């Protein structure tokens, strides 16, 4: 048996993915499951984008692209963010940039700050790159990241003398909270004062009160990760991109060349048309209202979701009533008794084991049905 490297042992399977496998197993057995667990739009890819992919195949755009994406697509993204094309890389979704950026910047023992609850790969990749993760619990502030709290945490960790980074994710996965713009401006100032580099995950930015907003508007040194997966219903096409200083982008390119390879030439061509057409998906205002109303009626504690496609309620009272010990047991109970898939809160940090992540990115009627089925097994 091969001995696994110490580096690889830092990677584990999140309950998020383990539970998703359990849902798929039940569906494979023919059971109808309503999913409030999926992190993708229920819309199909718009027709104009699909046709662009088909045309790319017909026109034999089926060969290797550059590792950082075609120059045509990079220029389109550069125009969108008003940056030089040398500051743009494209890859197979946003996730490769979590790896390539941290791999390019982080040395053993460097500080990586992130808010809790957090998207599981943030934590996993940060640790595997040798970073020391410092979690910032945002539950006391309704999952809002606050500049004064951040300033104190930076001071306590002596960031002035250590190479330090922070991953900011707004709208947030899993909470659905959009950080307040005035607060974000203060946060950028606090990070600059404390010599902390910002990596901004903006993959849900299209589903927010201000779809055109990017944290880069406050500081051009901020590194942005985004994708077309959510904004254009292109999850399976796998196109993501990063905006960063040009010198860092050179190193990211080397990582992509050696570890990832090029993004699909067909998806690349379709992404160009997607950005030209601006055929982004509508926000999910009605679904949020349905979810908020149901949670309030059921007296389940929650912070209001203002963006993205998720909400992160606290089911502690429901768990006590049903005599369930943790979020995995609760999610399993809802799956087996109600036929509704959710995501255990512990996936997003050990402190959140009474929470569930609920996705409301499904048709309103189907969302209402899912909530009715949950209600039946709660009352």
Characterization of this structure:
The chain is an alpha/beta fold and 379 residues long. Strand 3 (111-116), helix 5 (120-128) and strand 4 form a beta-alpha-beta unit. Helix 4 packs parallel to helix 5 (120-128) and helix 4 (95-105) packs across helix 8. It folds into two domains: 8-44 and 282-378, Aspartate Aminotransferase, domain 1, CATH 3.90.1150.10; 63-277, Aspartate Aminotransferase, domain 2, CATH 3.40.640. It has helices spanning 15-28, 47-58, 71-81, 95-105, 120-128, 147-156, 181-193, 246-260, 265-277, 285-297, 316-322, 327-338, 364-378, and strands at 34-35, 88-91, 111-116, 132-137, 164-169, 196-201, 223-227, 240-243, 310-311, 340-341, 343-344, 356-359. The termini are far apart. The strands form three sheets. The chain has a seven-stranded mixed β-sheet with strand order 2-8-7-6-5-3-4, with helices on both faces. The protein has a three-stranded antiparallel β-sheet with strand order 9-12-11.
Strand content: 5-15%
Summarize the main sheet. 7 strands, mixed
Number of helices: 13
CATH superfamily of the largest domain: Type I PLP-dependent aspartate aminotransferase-like (Major domain)
The tally of beta strands, per DSSP, is 12
Q: Helix share of residues?
A: 40-55%
CA-to-CA gap between the ends? 51 Å
The CATH architecture of the largest domain is 3-Layer(aba) Sandwich
Which residues form runs of ≥5 with pLDDT under 50?
Answer: none
CATH class of the largest domain: Alpha Beta
Mass-distribution shape: globular
